Amino acid sequence: MPTGVAIRDARRHLFEAAERVLLREGPLGLTSRAVTTEAGVAKGVLHRHFTDFDAFLIALVLDRIAGVESRSATLLAAAGTGTVTANLADAVDDVFGPVAVAIIGLISFRDDLRARLRELRPGGIPLLAEATDMVAGYLAAERSAGRLAPGADVSTMALMLVGGANLIFGGAPPGERPSLDEVRRMVASALR
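User: That's the sequence. What structure does it adopt?
Assistant: Structure tokens below.
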């Protein structure tokens, strides 16, 4: 990209480039050079917006977490409508998209990134912890509405659902995703 050409929303442009690299090359291939090359910008563009590459990666993960928190509000609004299984399966399928699965791998792969994220968001593995909170909050609302047993342990159920989702989505062959029917079966089993 020529010098002096303005980039509309450079942060978003860099995040999207990083996501493409991560999906194509995995955590080992995600470097600042790979991101800026994919984005078609000079390396200085990344450093103009972020203090270092780890700060960029933290911002990328926090952006994805914000998406989970937004999805959480949508799921919570669905409490009392449809079926609990269908609502959760749709939310889990949405949250565990290919980019999220790749970012979970990135967080697991980079100890320094995980440590810095835990300073900002203690408790659990970033992104998975927020997905667990989303599911637990929804299940608590459904329990309050009488659609789950009064004594249902929503915290444990949420851990089971997110852990199961992480395994079936993360274990899918590259470029493939589990079917929504498979996700629904996993959700239904955890709810039983």
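The mean pLDDT is 92.
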